[in-house]
Design a protein that fits this description.
4-stranded antiparallel beta sheet, binds flavin mononucleotide, single chain, alpha+beta, about 15% strand, about 180 residues
Length: about 180
Amino acid sequence: MTTTGNAVLDAIRSRRVVRAMTDEPVPRADIETVLDAARWAPTAGNRHLQRYVATDDPTTLHLLRMTAPGMVQRPTAAITICTDRALAADFGFPPDSAGLHVDVGTAAATLLLAAHAIGLGAGPVTSFSRAAAAVVLRLPDGWRPELIVCLGYPAPRPPAPMRGRARLTWRDLTVWVP
Ligand SMILES: Cc1cc2nc3c(=O)[nH]c(=O)nc-3n(C[C@H](O)[C@H](O)[C@H](O)COP(=O)(O)O)c2cc1C
């Protein structure tokens, strides 16, 4: 089966974390398109225990950035994925349940791909103070901020990507059994 020209696979392959963004605001309708994609992400037990806190307010974004050493970019919008831990407890999830963490990952991947699919740049941030972000975002009790997805338009001449390993092939990452 040929995999070139497949829209989903092409989007997965071409998405990159964007850490340099212009100051052009992202239209609300586009943020809503990205948010709407998130509800299609798979969740443990189909419980949908993640909540999304969206902002395009410059002051809130500035304050949020101050809580986040890992936020290299200056986004014009951000979506913070939170886990509603009170609701999770009601459904019997222990606080350290793997499913709750995995749900954040599936949500983040879906948000990043959705943003990319409509021409937005996006970057995940986990290096931030949960306590400070909760205050800035006025989170209700029991909502834990897990991951911030920065949104904006990619800058025309981005800096070199973060240094890391050369792109791995699927063979590098896979073992077959038996
Ligand atoms: C769980 C997780 C946390 C991350 N946290 C940050 C972060 O705090 N700041 C950042 O700039 N990038 C962060 N990233 C992005 C990775 O550094 C990025 O995915 C990696 O460098 C590969 O880049 P690519 O996705 O463009 O291929 C995070 C990614 C994941 C999956």
